[in-house]
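Hi R.,

Here's the chain you asked about this morning:
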Amino acid sequence: MPDTMVPMNDDMTHDWRKAGWNREDLAWRARYDLMIHSDRAAVDIGLVVLKTAILMNAGTVVVLLAFVGQLWSRDDALMIGILGEMTPFLVGLIAAGLCAVFAYFYQSVVTERRQIEVDALHFPENEDTPWARWIGRLVTWFGWPMIGSALLSYGAFIWGALGVKAVLTG
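And the predicted structure, written out as C-alpha cells:
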C-alpha cells in the first residue's frame, strides 16, 4: 500500500456506508417533496383554469340575461339573436362541469398510482399487477377528457363571444 493511503477499519466502513445511506435518503426525500409540490401546483393551476372557465361562461350568461331583460319590449329581433347566442356559453358551462368531474376521477387515479409506486419500493412484485396496469390506463382515460373539456369550455366562450359580437354589430 502507498504511504498516503489509510486503511479502513470496520468502524470507518460502517460510517462510510451510513453516510451513503443518509445521502440516498435525503435524495429520495427531495424527489418525494418535489413530486408532492408539483402535484399541488398542478392541482392549483387546474383549479384556476376550471374556476376561470366557469366564471367566464356563467358570468356571460348572467350579463346576457340582464341585457335581454332591458330589451324585452324594445327590440325583439336583437333579443332573440342574443338569446340564441347564449347556447355556446351554456355548452362551455356544461363542459367546465364535466371537466370538474373528470378532474376528480383523474386525481383519484393519480393518487392511487403514486401509492402503487411508493408501495413498489417495499414490494416490487406489486408494481406489475393487472391493477397497476389498469391505473396507468385510467390516468390517460380521465386525463385527456379533462383537458379536452377544459379546452371545449374556453373554445365555447370564444365562439359565443364572436356570435354575440356578430349579433350586436349585425
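The chain has four helices and no strands.

Let me know if you need anything else.
M.
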